[in-house]
Amino acid sequence: MNEIVSLLESYKRIGFQATALANAVEIVNNMRKWRLSDEPVHPDEMGEVDHSTRTNTKCTIFLGFTSNLMSSGLREVIRFLVKHRHVSAIVTTAGGIEEDFIKCLGKTYLADFALDGAELRRKGLNRIGNLVVPNDNYCKFEDWVIPILDEMLKEQKSTGVVWTPSSVINRLGKEIDNEESVYYWAYKNDIPVFCPALTDGSLGDMIFFHSYKSPGLVIDIVQDIRKLNDISLKAKKAGMIILGGGVCKHQIANAMLFRNGADYAVYINTGQEFDGSDSGARPDEAVSWGKIKAGSQTVKVYADATLVFPLLVASTFARSDE
Prior knowledge:
The protein is about 50% helix and about 15% strand. The chain has 15 helices and nine strands.
């Protein structure tokens, strides 16, 4: 591990994206090290300072990632972060939820980017880059999740509970009861997982089927946006680590708006900003919106997250000396 840390420190002097990655390591370590006790006591707090609380108050770290990363072996790196409580909240897409559970039910296979789509279709294989997932995995997912949706509907009718995307994910994490699952550990460690686009994937298909078989299940997105924004508002210091773009990137950044911006931001993606997309935007664009504070510690690493995120985690969260 020390060799990896030394290697990444040497990246500072290489230039280009190597230097950006080294900067990302430094920023994430600063997120991890920060304590409220590092800050001067506000004059209004002078008479009631709890030094122990200040010492134990850490930076609130928001992790965002796209679904393809859960489909990949990066899932194990994400699971490490959740299992060991290194992040405070997660935002991802529907695929970023369902693929974790599907991997507990069936295997995903390494393949090739160049495989013929029509031939794969005939064989019942679905390609995700150079990975393939058999159709049967989604059948297993349907068999597993539909009875859970049935129980959730019964509870809604009997107790009046209103489900949200985050409470649905929490319940599925409980039901999978498998230590290989990211969301099992999110359930165990009470780490909220937000998915504004919960219906945009196989899980949405299951909710669609269920709505005809047993109509009435309500999943309220309003409660979740309140919950996510409240976590941002209450954070004494806030950091974003975002892998990829789209919904997961902007939903976290938008939550930062309510606290006048994040204090730290690390973006890892391959998006370009020439087309005006939020996915490709550099951190400085978010500064203009008040989603990142001016003068805060930020970096964008232009790279495939599967290449560089394991190195970043090895040089930060996985270090045994902290």
